[in-house]
Amino acid sequence: MNLNPPGQCDMNLDPRGQFDINLNPAGPCDIYINPPGPCDIYLNQPGQCDINLNQPGPCDININPAGPCDMNLNQPGPCDINLDPPININPAGPCDINLNQPSQCDINLDPAGPCDINLNQPGPCDINLDPPGPCDIYINPPGPCHINLNQPGKCDINLNQPGQCDINLDPAGPCDINLNQQVNAI
After folding, report:
1. Which residue did the predictor score with more confidence, 164 or 60?
2. Would you place residue 81 in the very low, low, confident or very high pLDDT band (cuts 50, 70, 90)?
3. Chain centroid, CA 42 distance in Å
C-alpha cells in the first residue's frame, strides 16, 4: 500500500498476513491493526498519525520527520520503537507511546520532541533517549528495564513496583526520578 501525498486516510487491517504500508507526505492518518502477521509501516513527512496495534506479530514502524504521533500497542509480539530504524521517529513532533503487556520492546529516540512513554506490565524494555526534548517515562510493574539518557532535556521517570531497573544519566538536564519499591539506580 503506497500513499503519495493523499489527504486524510483510515486503514483498518483485521487478521491478514504480511503487509507493507508506505506513507510519503500524507495528511492525518489512522492505522488500526488487529492480529496481522509481520507488518512494516513507513511514514515520511506525514501530518498527525495514530497507530493502533492489537495483538499483531512483529511490526516495524518507521517515522521520518513526522508530526504528532500516537502509538498504542496492546499485547503485541516483539516491538522495536526507534525514533531512528525498527518504531523509528527521527526528528518527530510530540509523541505518545503506550505499551500494554507487550513482550520485549526497545524504544530509541534520537532528537525527538516532547515524548510520553507509558509501559504497563511489559517484559524487558530498553529506553534510549539521545538529545530529546522533555520526556515522561511511566513504568508500572515491568520486568528488567534499562533507561539511558544522553544529554536530554527535562526528564521525569516514574517507576511503580518494577523489577530490576538500571538508569544511566550521562550529562542530563533536570531529571526527576520517582522510585516506588525495589529498583537499582546507576
Report:
1. 164
2. low
3. 14
Cell representation of residue 24: 510519503
Average pLDDT taken over every residue of the chain = 68
d(CA 139, CA 124): 11
First to last CA, the chain: 45
- Close Cβ partners of 130 (under 8 Å, ≥ 6 residues apart): 108, 109, 110, 111, 150, 151, 152
Angle CA 67–142–89, to nearest 5: 20
Residue 147, pLDDT score: 84
Question: What pLDDT does 184 receive?
Answer: 46
Distance CA 89, CA 113 (A): 10
Q: What does the domain layout of the chain look like in residue ranges?
A: 2-180
DSSP state of 1: -
Nearest CA to 63 out of 14, 12, 29 is that of 29
CB distance 132 to 112 below 8 Å: yes
What is the Cα–Cα distance from 31 to 25, expressed in whole angstroms? Answer: 15
Provide the CB-side half-sphere exposure for 11 (13 A, CA): 25
